[in-house]
Write a structure and sequence with these properties.
The protein has 237 residues and is of the alpha/beta class. It has two domains: 9-113 and 224-234, Rossmann fold (3-Layer(aba) Sandwich); 115-221, Rossmann fold (3-Layer(aba) Sandwich). The chain has helices at residues 23-36, 59-63, 71-84, 100-106, 114-121, 133-138, 140-146, 157-171, 180-192, 221-234; strands at 15-19, 48-52, 88-90, 126-130, 151-153, 197-200, 217-220. Helix 1 (23-36) links the parallel strand 1 (15-19) and strand 2. Helix 3 (71-84) crosses helix 4.
Length: 237
């Protein structure tokens, strides 16, 4: 017999966050959904289920052939959220979207596509991309943007190494704000290469610059995911 689902307040859908990649990004997604929810009381907020599973192996290492596959735990965690009552799943990790198709097969509820949703919002024809080596290697953003006629500009070798150091320092618990100057410097060099905007395509990087800091318009994938998850949860369809 099919289990009866208990969804959010007033018929809204419950959001499941497949997290732990890393924990700070997971917390930030929750905070942004909470801040954007049109609620005037506790009871008007959405039901949000978070599985912060830091045991999921490093996605970039696996993609580059240097580590254990995260897919078994990604699927298991998605099923845990589904069984707990989530009606849709958001994954605050760009690299994990390499496994999106398999995660979707593991559950019966929708799993949002942060990368595809980000590409849909881009208005410029040439944009820079800040992301992990794993995301660059897979071409996830390149394929999503190519469908819309958008050209991506990648950082040079030294800048990409800097981006990776920043990401792993933040994962290690260092203060994200202390790396603002480094990231802004990379963005300025992408601008010199012809980028008219930039994608923050790693959820740790979403913790650093904001629109007022960046010399280019910033497409923050984590923020876009938060807004899409909120819209889907509030929709009645």
């Amino acid at each position: 017999m099919q289990q009866k689902r208990t969804i959010g307040i007033s018929g809204n859908r419950a959001i499941g966050i497949l997290g732990g990649m890393g924990p700070k990004a997971t917390l930030e997604l929750f905070k942004r959904i909470l801040a954007s929810t049109p609620a005037s009381s506790d009871q008007e907020h959405l039901r949000i289920l978070i599985d912060n599973n830091p045991a999921i192996p490093d996605r970039t290492a696996a993609i580059l052939g240097d580590g254990e596959s995260p897919l078994p735990l990604l699927k298991k965690t998605a099923r845990t959220l589904e069984d707990a009552g989530a009606d849709l799943i958001a994954i605050p990790c760009n690299s994990a979207h390499y496994y999106l198709g398999e995660i979707r097969k593991a559950v019966k509820i929708p799993v949002l596509d942060m990368i595809g949703e980000t590409a849909l919002t881009i208005k410029e024809r040439r944009v820079g991309l800040l992301a992990t080596d794993g995301v660059l290697h897979t071409g996830l953003y390149h394929r999503a943007c190519e469908k819309r006629g958008i050209e991506l500009v990648k950082p040079g070798r030294d800048d990409q190494a800097l981006v990776m150091r920043v990401i792993y320092h933040i994962k290690a618990g260092d203060d994200a704000a202390s790396f603002k100057a480094d990231v802004i410097g990379v963005i300025k060099r992408l601008q010199e290469e012809g980028a008219a905007a930039v994608i923050a395509g790693c959820t740790e990087l979403s913790l650093i610059p904001n629109q007022t800091d960046s010399p280019l318009f910033l497409y923050d994938a984590l923020d876009i995911l938060a807004q899409v998850a909120l819209r889907r949860a509030l929709s009645s369809g």
